[in-house]
Design a protein that fits this description.
Length: 214
């Protein structure tokens, strides 16, 4: 007698598919007031003409904007410096330029101006003061010789009688042993070999002098 055969195993039915729970919708991102008005980095990139949308990050755009502002500030500063230098040069106070103003002559460490039109002594003195100078103070015979190389018209100088004595306009005492002086007047002009005093209302050319720029 043959042994009884076991019935074949029945196939198990497949498990039902798992049901995923529905995901909650993502919460909307809150935008700052600057972004809402288009002033944020993304808004800057979206503006027409920026040239960065879709190709360069907002950091690169910010760096480029900073560079442009810096270059603009440097340009403004250089322009202001040029304006100031131009103003100073027009007043003759830039030391890197000529040691004397235009139409003035340099001798030693002084600048000299020789007038063409005759005026009285006080008018000549006022002109010199208006140019940050004084009527010429002569300190040596060589200085006197230099003056007569450029003028033969016996000009006023910065020497005047005060009481019984003569004084230079810069306050230095006058040494009569250095230059002989003659005449009964109050204001002094120069001749090739001597100083002469006369009335201050007489009209003559004059000579201004001041220290040269160093």
């Amino acid at each position: 007698m043959e042994p009884a055969q076991e019935p074949p195993a029945r196939a198990r039915p497949p498990p039902p598919p798992a049901v995923r729970p529905a995901s909650a919708p993502a919460a909307p991102r809150l935008r700052s007031p600057a972004e809402a008005e288009g002033r944020g980095p993304e808004g800057l990139l979206r503006r027409s003409g920026s040239g960065y949308e879709g190709s360069t990050s907002w950091k690169a755009a910010l760096e480029d904007t900073t560079t442009r502002l810096l270059l603009g500030a440097i340009a403004v500063l250089l322009f202001a410096i040029l304006v100031v230098m131009s103003i100073l040069a027009s007043k003759g106070c830039i030391k890197c330029e000529a040691p004397c103003p235009e139409d003035w002559l340099l001798y030693g460490r002084k600048c000299y101006f020789f007038s063409e039109e005759p005026r009285d002594w006080n008018t000549g003195r006022q002109y010199c003061h208006g140019h940050e100078a004084a009527l010429a103070v002569i300190q040596s015979q060589k200085e006197l010789e230099f003056m007569f190389k450029f003028t033969r018209r016996e000009p006023w100088i910065g020497l005047r009688r005060v009481g019984d004595e003569f004084h230079w306009v810069n306050g230095d005492p006058f040494d009569p042993d250095t230059f002989p002086i003659s005449g009964p007047g109050e204001c002094v002009f120069v001749e090739p070999t001597r100083l002469v005093s006369t009335e201050c209302l007489m009209t003559r050319p004059w000579v201004c002098s001041k220290m040269a720029y160093t």
